[in-house]
Amino acid sequence: MANYITVSYDTLFAFTKAVFTHIGCNDADAFAASKALLSADIRGIDSHGVARLSGYIRLWQAGRVNATPHIQIIHETPSTATIDADGALGLVAAQQAMQLAIKKAKQCGTGWVAVGNSNHFGIAGYHAMLALEHDMIGIAMTNASALVAPTFGKEKMLGTNPIAVAIPAKTQPPFVADFATTTAANGKLEILQRKNEDTPFGWVQSADGTPSTDAHILKKNGALLPLGSDREHGSHKGYALGSIVDIFSAVFSGASYGPWAPPFPAYIPMPEDMPGTGLGHFIGAIRIDAFRPADAFLMHMDRWISRFRNTTPIDAQQPVIIPGDPERLMEAERLQHGIPIIETVMNDLNALATSLQLKPLSV
Amino acid sequence: MANYITVSYDTLFAFTKAVFTHIGCNDADAFAASKALLSADIRGIDSHGVARLSGYIRLWQAGRVNATPHIQIIHETPSTATIDADGALGLVAAQQAMQLAIKKAKQCGTGWVAVGNSNHFGIAGYHAMLALEHDMIGIAMTNASALVAPTFGKEKMLGTNPIAVAIPAKTQPPFVADFATTTAANGKLEILQRKNEDTPFGWVQSADGTPSTDAHILKKNGALLPLGSDREHGSHKGYALGSIVDIFSAVFSGASYGPWAPPFPAYIPMPEDMPGTGLGHFIGAIRIDAFRPADAFLMHMDRWISRFRNTTPIDAQQPVIIPGDPERLMEAERLQHGIPIIETVMNDLNALATSLQLKPLSV
Question: How close is the nearest chain B Cα to the Cα of A363, in Å?
Answer without folding.
Answer: 35
